[in-house]
């Protein structure tokens, strides 16, 4: 447990510490990323009355990332040591537990780093990438405004509003990006709120900004017919099968459908595994008759259950298609048909499927289950964003003047 022990005159950063120490440095690793990297330094121990060796592990997937991380840690540790920080403090008060790996850092900046480190084990790669991007922007702001070293519990709502004002006015990010940043920071402070290290989340009172509907455009019946014909012309039957799965299951193309396995195709439903699902929950969607006919035509259930349904070979196999494979195949068809508007993409097939399902059934509860929405409000908003209404004939009886 670290604590500041100044002399009678308060020590400020830049002045000589009242306690001896040895500056932080990166231990020699030979730039080998297979080894664990540490920043090491020596600080005064009150209990042992001597300098003791301490270290902080450096994380990063690339050489550049680790060197930058090490540089940041060294800078912060040296600042703390210079300000009079000691370890093994003699005190009658019980020390508050801190994460062992970051015991030397109590500031807000280090709290953000620890948050990302923990979240990396539970988030999917794309989600962690989003978190990392938002947190990095926040870290830059903290450094530029000399807020990185303040205690986590002393970051106020006023400062939180100031940061979000900076995001909207200085960075001029879209409302959608603004809301993503806000969501990540709410999650960051909730992380420490649930661990009882802070009493209030300073971002909780900030409201999201209104968002425009997404730019993914649904396909018209004529466009669907032309795309089907083009797939048949070039012999890309798997692409047409993939688009049908998108249309009927309303699954996400990259993270869910691309990683679908044969064993997930059950008798009446398709299982979306929690490892791939955005909400981290295993759920099922119904198989409508047109999709069932395609499943039987391609004899998908005859393949080994562990095989991926969609591969670059065109039939189920042991290795799934790479992430951009169907995007590229689809873009090739759209280019061939001169549908070059970027609003037309794979995700548009999900919108196309939702519109078709709504017009065929008018059953919002069914759409909620098939979309795997957590609430009807979410489904209602989705339908309205697509230009659909719960009752198109509701105003038909309004009399004319």
TrEMBL record:
SUPFAM superfamilies: DNA breaking-rejoining enzymes (SSF56349). The keyword Thylakoid does not apply. Residues 214-400 form the Tyr recombinase domain. CDD domains: DNA_BRE_C (cd00397). Keywords: DNA integration, DNA recombination, DNA-binding. Residues 106-193 form the Core-binding (CB) domain. PANTHER family: PHAGE INTEGRASE-RELATED. This is Site-specific integrase. It comes from Spirosoma liriopis. The lineage of its organism: Bacteria, Pseudomonadati, Bacteroidota, Cytophagia, Cytophagales.
